[in-house]
Amino acid sequence: MDLQDWLGTWRLDPGRTEVAFHSPTFWGLAHVNGVFTEVEGSAEAVAEGNVTGRLRIAAASVRTGIGRRDNHLRSDDFFDVRRFPLIEVAVEAAEATGPSWVTLSVQLTVKGKQQDLELPTHVRGLPGGEVRLETTTTLNRQTFGVNGNLLGMMGDAVTIEAAAVFVKQS
After folding, report:
1. Section 3-10 average pLDDT
2. In angstroms, rounded to a whole number, what is the distance separating the alpha carbons of residues 37 and 55?
3. CA angle centred on 54, ends 40 and 22, rounded to 5°
4. ∠144-149-154 over CA atoms, to 5°?
5. Which of 62, 77, 87, 94 sees the fewest Cβ atoms within 10 Å?
């Protein structure tokens, strides 16, 4: 895709987007794997590097495959979804770093706590002019006040993997 193909307004396709996480538990002997099933977003590219966007992830949509654990993750111990229903990712800029790669400068907000991140992101054009972005990062959950931890069984590091498909609007 040519630079002009990237310029414009984009809408997230939630049906082809996945935000997943992996966290060690039981002192590293097992992992909790989960996804957030409700995500929406948009982006705008007006010039090379001048990219903005926003993802809104419904914290209550967390799914690990075990209902009781999912309810605990929604509780005050973890995401506190009653007080903080959204996890937000605000994209502030993008810098091309190689063929099919950009670094996204983002601000992540979880439970009202913010952290600036630089996310190496693979970008791939899809048939029909759509674009797929994929990134992985590791965060310390304590930074965001996601504290629940029975008997020290859970590690603080959480790996986040996101694959997002955007459809051009204009």
Report:
1. 80
2. 13
3. 70
4. 90
5. 77
Half-sphere exposure of 5 (CA within 13 A, CB side): 13
What is the pTM (predicted TM-score) of this model? 0.90
User: What are the pLDDT digits (tens) for 55-64?
Assistant: 999 999 999 9
Q: How far is CA 9 from CA 42, 88, 90, 130, in A?
A: 8, 19, 15, 12
Residue 109 has pLDDT above 70, yes or no: yes
pLDDT-wise least confident of 14-18, 66-70, 131-135, 154-158: 154-158
Nearest-5° Cα angle at 62, 67 to 19: 140
Q: Over 60: is that where the pLDDT of 1 sits?
A: no
The tokens of 130 are what? 């759509």
- Contact call for residues 160 and 139 (beta carbons, < 8 A): yes
Contact 120/106 with Cβ under 8 angstroms?
no
